[in-house]
Specification:
Number of domains: 3
Strand content: 5-15%
Order of helices and strands: HEHHEEHHEHHEEHH
CATH topology of the largest domain: Arc Repressor Mutant, subunit A
CATH superfamily of the largest domain: Winged helix-like DNA-binding domain superfamily/Winged helix DNA-binding domain
Length: about 230
């Protein structure tokens, strides 16, 4: 058991698989980051799911897989499909805010945990700035406690790992077993071998380059609107 105490979590019938979690999280992220392109098309959503930066793990999903995931999420009322008059494609929006009665700060915390796995409150604050600006770590901790106190809870506080001072938190949408697997995977790489710091920096540089490329593409699309 990786949590400090048994949280109960959602029942197994309500659990989401990793692809469903990724699709929901990308919809919530892009709603905040690129509101002009939200709701999202299937193509844009697939690209967001496969993004190399700000994702752990990195996934490689086909449009067919994402379309199947969307159908499951729509059946369970996690996602709405919107077909506007004259539009050639259906666009999609999440319903997490309604599903769990979440204000933007709580939604931002949950989204970051869904996109990047278990993290400390400080890491969440650093990584969520583009979705919601937290003034302090205490504000993040308050949002985390709200998500922990929900019934059933959607977030759990993890036991302190050896040699660490700050607790980490993980989302429970995939169930406690899935969270335990994520925590085990973290433990297996938490003590990198010699040269690990260099490899980590190389990964961070690659992720930043990918993010810059994405921003350039968005800017070019914006420019074309005025040509």
């Amino acid at each position: 058991m990786t949590t400090e105490e048994s949280t109960g979590g959602a029942d197994s019938a309500a659990e989401l698989d990793p692809f469903e979690i990724r699709v929901l999280a990308v919809l919530a992220e892009k709603e905040a980051l690129t509101p002009d392109n939200y709701p999202m098309s299937l193509n844009a959503l697939t690209n967001g799911c496969n993004q190399l930066s700000s994702r752990d793990p990195v996934m490689h999903l086909s449009e067919e897989t994402v379309a199947e995931v969307l159908q499951r999420l729509m059946q369970r009322k996690y996602v709405n499909g919107i077909t506007q008059a004259g539009a050639r494609v259906t666009k999609y929006e999440h319903r997490m805010r309604i599903k769990w009665t979440l204000e933007q700060d709580k939604l931002a915390v949950l989204t970051i945990l869904m996109l990047r796995g278990p993290q400390t409150a400080g890491e969440i604050r650093t990584r969520s700035g583009r979705i919601h600006e937290f003034k302090s770590v205490a504000e993040v901790e308050s949002a985390l406690q709200f998500l922990i106190d929900k019934y059933p809870p959607v977030v759990a506080r993890l036991a302190l790992a050896p040699g660490t001072k700050e607790p980490r938190y993980g989302q429970l949408l995939g169930g406690e077993a899935a969270l335990a697997r994520e925590e085990s995977a973290f433990g297996s790489i938490s003590a990198p071998a010699s040269g690990g710091r260099t490899a980590q920096l190389e990964q961070e540089v690659a992720a930043l380059r990918s993010e810059v490329d994405e921003l350039k593409a968005q800017f070019e699309n914006f420019k074309r609107q005025f040509e």
